[in-house]
Amino acid sequence: MDQIKIQNLEVFANHGVFPEENVLGQKFLISAVLYTDTRHAGKTDDLTASIHYGEISQFIVTFMKKNTFKLIERAAECLAEELLMHTAHLEKVELEVKKPWAPLGLPVEYVSVRIARQWHTAYIALGSNMGDKEGYLNAAVRELDRREDCRVVKTSGWLVTPPYGMTEQDDFLNGCLELRTLLPPEELLEELHKIEAHAGRERIIHWGPRTLDLDIIFYDDLIVESDTLCIPHVEMHKRDFVLKPLHEIAPYKHHPGNGKTVRELLEEVEQSQ
Fold first, then answer.
1. Residues 143, 198: contact at Cβ < 8 Å?
2. Which position among 45, 53, 128, 155 has the lowest Cβ density within 10 Å, counted as fewest Cβ atoms?
3. Distance between CA 253 and CA 249 in Å, rounded?
4. What DSSP string describes 42-107?
5. Confidence at 201, pLDDT banded by 50, 70, 90
6. Catalytic residue flag (residue 99)
């Protein structure tokens, strides 16, 4: 992806662990690498098709001056988030916050924190088989979309499917959505669990009835296997109630493990039934 760079933008601001740093202030140097597609701007000479580095520089100065943080880690994290949420065409940002006057009592040019943050694409499966099923699904979509660090891009239609695993329960209403998010996988999972809890979800019976079920199916092309999270979802390639709505919004998305598209996975499941 193309890059726009801002190198060592000087800002006088009030960040630091010690009280005198917050009161007296000191110099900081901010460097940013902005990842975007400059092709259209390069072909048309239209500034609105790119990222205005002058406006970004002013945004950085204003942000650093109006906030006070103890840690430059916190300053970098919050600045990156604000830039990504409020800058059109910005897909990823690398930030370095340098502190040349760090109170070390030792000769040092500067200390710094460097981070990279970006928008990610996740696919979420939704299901409900208790109460107002459609209402629960629609509310989950709204809760995700109202967050500034999450943007619902596409939503499938809702599909009525028989229960999986424990079959003596009501039919499910299932669907999938495509999500743009700044949240890393574990934080996204935590947010999904909060939304489930708001809907009255209780994790008592495995595969049992539930007001709302939210699962991360894909997250970029990431493969994760931990005690709390498995991406891609470990059962997704076997479940037509996941693959059918997912196929509606992302038929050519490749499974990062086996390389097969959602369409191919769905065809395999349908042929085996």
1. yes
2. 45
3. 9
4. HHH--GGGS--HHHHHHHHHHHHHH---S-HHHHHHHHHHHHHHHSTT--EEEEEEEETT---SS-
5. low
6. yes
